[in-house]
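Model it.
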Amino acid sequence: MSRPDLNLLFTLDVLLAEGSVARAARRLRLSPSAMSRALARLRETTGDPLLVRAGRGLVPTPRAIELRERVGQLVQDGEAVLRPTEKLNLKQLERTFTLRTSEGFVENFGPELIARVGEEAPGVRLRFVQKPDKDSKPLRDGLVDLETGVVGQTTAPELRVQALFRDRFIGVVRMGHPLSEGEVTPARYAAGRHVYVSRQGVDKGPIDEALNAFGLERKIVTIVGGFSTALALARASDLIASVPERHTGNLRTGMHSFPIPVSMPEITVSLLWHPRQDADPAHRWLRSHIRDVCAALK
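Modeled.
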């Protein structure tokens, strides 16, 4: 069996990225006829037309769409293998890292992380963006360097994942609230007025399922998109906020917290990144600081 020409991978990567023989030829500094011959070889090798004419342009076949990300990753991995490793000079490092996190993470862990990063690498800037959903596309597309959150069924399987800490949901009320004194039973908890945190707009969750086992239903009077908003409302009213304990430590200062009086599983908050960033020295350095900060702030 003949060995495939691996140089074709680089040609295929550019063709699929450009979607044009002429543009791919210019990018690789080849003549259009040479690129056409390369496309013919790729079609013969893969057994698929890859790019087919549609009007005045070319469109990828389903097989080409399937290959696009895999080929791109193979090319990046190959370039990383052949690239000499550079020693990381943190004092001279100029770079902006984008981190996508749920509301509350920045407020709780951000100050210590920014201080540590600034001390070692003054030219590094951290850009925090909100996480409205669990879509892995920003990590895949390189729009985000790192993400924190709970791994779920929608998390892309190729992402690298490292657990940061375990957390549990607790109830939080203002000081002087009726639930700040005495035992908080399921009935007392359910009887209160609640603020519910939901990024998808749903109005029920695991807490409500657990209460249903007792024949109870809590009254949710408002739905918000983040934990800090929920806590701000609870601080200024008689609303009850149910939030993750470690995730919101700094946000709950001056408020009364209590265990939710129904059985609730703990959650694991993890750090996620795309494999293309795995070996990058600066990226590894930042990941280590995030892990250390989350471990230190109990």
